[in-house]
Amino acid sequence: MSDAYLFLAGAILTEVTGTTLLKLSEGFDQASFGAAAVGLYLVSFYCVSEALVELPVGLVYATWSAAGILALAAIGIAFFGEPIDAAGVLGIILVVLGIVVLNVYSGAYAPA
């Protein structure tokens, strides 16, 4: 695994953690959670910028955002009691399939 993919993984992890903390900040009423979220977003953007040195922008952004959607939907369901229905499950499956196709099968987004 190249450093670019490690930076992309770091971007995903910090963005997901930051968004979870943003939820816990209760609209910044819990300022420490909000401040931590902002810090993690900065780290996430740095990691994305490093991943973009070697990887195509479409691949990076699609993977970063889709992985965040998947992880945050799971966190919302598991820890915040957010509901999900059949349409939501189908949508998540389609997002995952789209990213698999983009990363595995698309020659247009092969790493540089």
List the helices and strands and how they pair.
Elements: H1 3-24, H2 31-51, H3 57-80, H4 86-105
Helix pairs in contact: 1-2, 1-3, 3-4
Q: Could you walk me through the main structural features you see in this protein, from its secondary elements to its overall organization?
A:
The protein has helices spanning 3-24, 31-51, 57-80, 86-105. It has one domain (3-109). 20% of the residues are buried. The radius of gyration is 15 Å and the shape is flat. It is an all-alpha fold and 112 residues long.
Measured as a percent range, the helix fraction is over 70%
Strand residues, percent: under 5%
* Quaternary structure of the protein: single chain
Q: Radius of gyration, rounded?
A: 15 Å
Report, as a whole number of angstroms, the end-to-end distance: 14 Å
Number of domains: 1
Low-confidence stretches: none
Which shape, going by the Cα principal axes? flat
What is the residue-mean pLDDT, rounded to a whole number?
Answer: 93
Q: What series of H and E elements makes up the topology?
A: HHHH
**Tally of DSSP β-strands:** 0
**Structural class by secondary-structure content:** mainly alpha
Discrete helix count: 4
The biggest beta sheet, please?
none
